[in-house]
Amino acid sequence: MNNDRQMYNVDLSCAECKTAITQLPFEPTGDKPVYCTTCLRARRDSRGNSRDSRGPRQMYQVNEKCAECNAAITQLPFQPSGGKPLYCFDCVKARRQ
Ligand SMILES: [Zn+2]
Ligand SMILES: [Zn+2]
Question: pLDDT tens across 43-64, in order?
């Protein structure tokens, strides 16, 4: 926390809720949307929650091979059961698309 941060006096409105913004912790450049502190926090929360709700992902150390491209797999976000084919991150991503 740095409460001594310099604030710039501005005359803008929030790009999201149109609330008047009179102070910014940075000098507005004019070509970027500006958000009020409420919307900024909401945007930060919505981004953080999707990740934080699951908590830090535990990784299991494994010594497996991708069933698709044969790449070595050394970490998995779940414990391999052995009965299912495993895919590396690239192949998992490619299969999801
Ligand atoms: Zn706003
Ligand atoms: Zn692969």
Answer: 888 765 555 555 667 888 999 9
Residue 59, CA atoms < 13 Å, CB-side half-sphere: 8
- Which tokens belong to 30? 């004019």
Amino acid at 63: N
Distance 48 CA to ligand 1 centre (A): 18
0.70 cut: is pTM over it? no
In degrees, to the nearest 5, what angle opens at C-alpha 18 toward C-alphas 26 and 42?
70
Tokens 């912790």 belong to which residue?
Answer: 25
Q: How far is the CA of 15 from the centre of ligand 1 (A)?
A: 7
**Ligand number with the minimum distance to the CA of 12:** 1
Triad 47, 87, 56: Cα angle to 5°: 35
